[in-house]
């Protein structure tokens, strides 16, 4: 994990209240994105995008399937689906 992500997680450690302190810096990118989108602010999201990039964050968001996708609140999933469709555009053939 890069130093920027470690600092970001430390700054937002209150969003990972159920993760033991000793394991917070070892959380997966999937969990990081899920928690920031569900519980963080728009400013937290923008900061995450500056560190990771919008395409990788949207890839992690859309890679959530089944139960993991259900971890997002419906209104959060809908909102970020719209955000990523608008700002994380890709050239995908029909």
Outline of this structure?
With 94 residues, this protein is an all-alpha fold. 63% of the residues lie in helices and 0% in strands.
Give short descriptive properties of this protein.
mainly alpha, 94 residues, single chain, globular
Explain what you see.
By secondary structure, the protein is an all-alpha fold. It has one domain (3-87). Helix content is 63%, strand content 0%. It has helices spanning 3-11, 29-39, 42-52, 54-63, 67-70, 74-87. It starts with a helix and ends in a 7-residue tail after the last helix. The relative contact order is 0.12.
Classify the secondary structure makeup into a structural class: mainly alpha
Question: Helical element count?
Answer: 6
Could you give a short account of the major beta sheet?
none
Number of strand elements:
0
What overall geometry do the principal axes of the alpha carbons give? globular
In round numbers, the mean pLDDT is 88
Spans of 5+ residues with little confidence (pLDDT < 50)?
Answer: none
Please state the CA-atom Rg, rounded to the nearest Å.
Answer: 13 Å
Number of domains: 1
User: Level of helix content?
Assistant: 55-70%
- The assembly state of the depicted protein chains is single chain
